[in-house]
Queue: 3 jobs
Job 1
Amino acid sequence: MKPLKGKIALVTGGSRGAGRCIALELGKAGAIVYITGRSVIGNATNQWPGTIDDTASQINASGGKGIAIRCDHTNDSETEAAIAAIRKEQGKLDLLVNNVWGAHDLGVEAKPFWELPLEHWDTMFTAGVRAQLATNHFAIPLLRENHEALIVHTTFWDHNKYTGQFYYDLAKHALVRMAYGLATELKQDNITVLAVSPGFMRTELVLKHHGSDEDHWKESEELRRTESPFYIGRGITALASDPHVMDKNGQVLRVGDLAREYRFTDIDGRYVPPFTL
């Protein structure tokens, strides 16, 4: 079954991690998936593993259709051009997954606010929150031309608990509030807006930090509570396939709760409960 056949999706920040796996899962479900990001073959950000071209190729190799557009979402003209390309090539957009995030290389420093560099604001808000806001700004006019559409913001949330790092906490909760505000404004257009929170993901950068890989992560005590980035991909695919998704409009949803509701598992067959701090 291809529940998203005929749907056009855009996943921002799709070179690696959650973005890559969300794009792959949407592609397997039949969507035509556009992937944006800065990393392209021969020029990957910080020489990290993965590029938008790799993600598109993996979608195509599995029988789907992936299209990579190089885009720095801190540059409004590039974001606008990416949306314009989708309009020209497809004439519509059904699903926007706002996943771009600029702070992967910072980690989460558990220091008090006054000891953290003010530059963390730019990294997390300019390259994170504002980048997602700008993508919404340019994409919503195209989304509004549909009879229905879905916007998802990836974030981190655990019942409003403090995450332990001031700027990270502020940015992630801003994304939750952005989803809520847009849900209110766009309900009349039958556009559902949600925030989705994964748990502790075994992304490429997390595995690299712990000196492990997908075959050996269970040997690390620190990684035993993790989930693969495909878990959130399956959650967002389930939401995009749900004809009653509007019933969840404006909510922040945890992937473990979605797994229970929609009856999917992680790639190793496990049900991973919602992550708690």
Note: The first helix runs from residue 17 to 28.
Job 2
Amino acid sequence: MIRQMVTRATQSSRAPNATLAPLGLAAALVASPVLAFDINAMSDTEKAAFGEAVREYLIDNPETIVDAINVLEGRQAQAQAQADFDLVSQYADAIFDDGFSWVGGNPDGDITLVEFLDYRCGYCRRAHPEVAELLAEDGNIRVIIKEFPILGEASLISSRFAIAVKHVAGDDAYAQVHDVLMEFSGDPTDVALRRIAEGLGLEADPILEAMDSDAVTQEIATTRSLAQALQINGTPTFVLEDELLRGFVPADQMAIMVADKRG
């Protein structure tokens, strides 16, 4: 049908009313879901007339451009969501059961929320109380923390300290240190970290010694490799069951997503 319209319009363009033909052709093409003609088959004069007709149509109907952009963005979002779904499925074991990441909330919860974070990240700090609120209001969520320091040496030192605390003093101590580091704004010097440890009743020396251990280094490297595989470039990034959430998400929005996952 479009090919017939193009043929008629091209033929008409050689008639006395040739200037009207491109307008009709442009309107037909914009209204049609299929572009079924070869513009290279048109003469230079016809191409110029056609281009001007399209230009005039878009100026008179600018909402067409907005509609096209919205369609494009929707398609891109769908493609990204499907790609993220495939990545989560492919790396599910490493995401949800790596054998070393801290697990909190309700370990037997029916929903799992994974967070890749950096202690020096402002958005991670904003997300911290939001996640705490979500867990407090919904007692059936399992949360997993992935140490992903990407903002420089201070981030790396902070993550090494947190992981060393977990290795030396256990999960409960890690949870306490995690909360402190999320609010700590100073430089993570040995003196500062010692004060944090001792302030929580922990023995500082073995923790500081463990920070540069092979086990801590390997844990950070493994998580970084996983993040790269998942195409995670920033923090915070969440994995909510089968979905990747890239960026800060308020507790109320997260709660709606959790409810949707439960069906």
Note: The longest strand covers residues 111-117.
Job 3
Amino acid sequence: MQLRCDVHTHTLYSRHAYSTILENVHAAKEAGLELLGSTDHFSSMLYPEYENIRHYQYLCVSHTWPKEIDGVRLLQGCEVDIVDLDGHLFGYDIPIAKNIDGDFYNDKKTLSLYERVTRKMDYVIASVHKHSFADSATPLECTKLYLEALRNKKVLILGHIGRSGLPFEIDPVLLAAKEAHKLIEINEHSMDSGNHCIDRCRAIAVRCAELSIPISVSSDAHFALRIGQLDKVKKLLSEIHFPEELIATRSKDSFLSAMKDAGL
């Protein structure tokens, strides 16, 4: 099984990751990848005063990076937190009218922090990290939050749903992703989170195969040397005979095609 993309990766900006974007690109080239997606965290875990647009300059201008470095296609995105049972994404309720200089934006609009940060990105991964908001939630409520997150037009991937710890109903989420031409992620980092998590990821992958739901396979690397290292996920997918044509990250062309199908 040849997987030529890694579209969920982190740089130093995420604060608990350890490599620069150039180190990640070079690692991707060494791993034989055709495409790298850089998706640093966009959430309240980064800064105590998270309402300040200045904290997110790195993300706001990542669209200015070269589109290709050393033969590796480079995409700019982020991994944004789902923050409540309504499926809202981090920054949705923080109005931003002024830029990092303190001047009003040229468009004279007051947009949300989420809109300001992501509007020029290639795609967004929506994930649950801090899940205390759902501690007493029912499976139906947890299902709803993923369905609502999928409605956001920038969201291309639901991140590590097998590791979220939420008791959601699998089929409705997978079928909604399929209808919206979006991807379900099975990532390498989840394989290190214990047998319960692996079993959950396996069950999700099996249903994706049965329902013909496209998936995204990525490392969730927080260190350059883990870019493109996907052996554990490959082993899981091989064991269940997962159809390679349903893996959107199998090649650069297949991933860019998946983005186009999703309207990105």
Note: The longest helix spans residues 195-211.
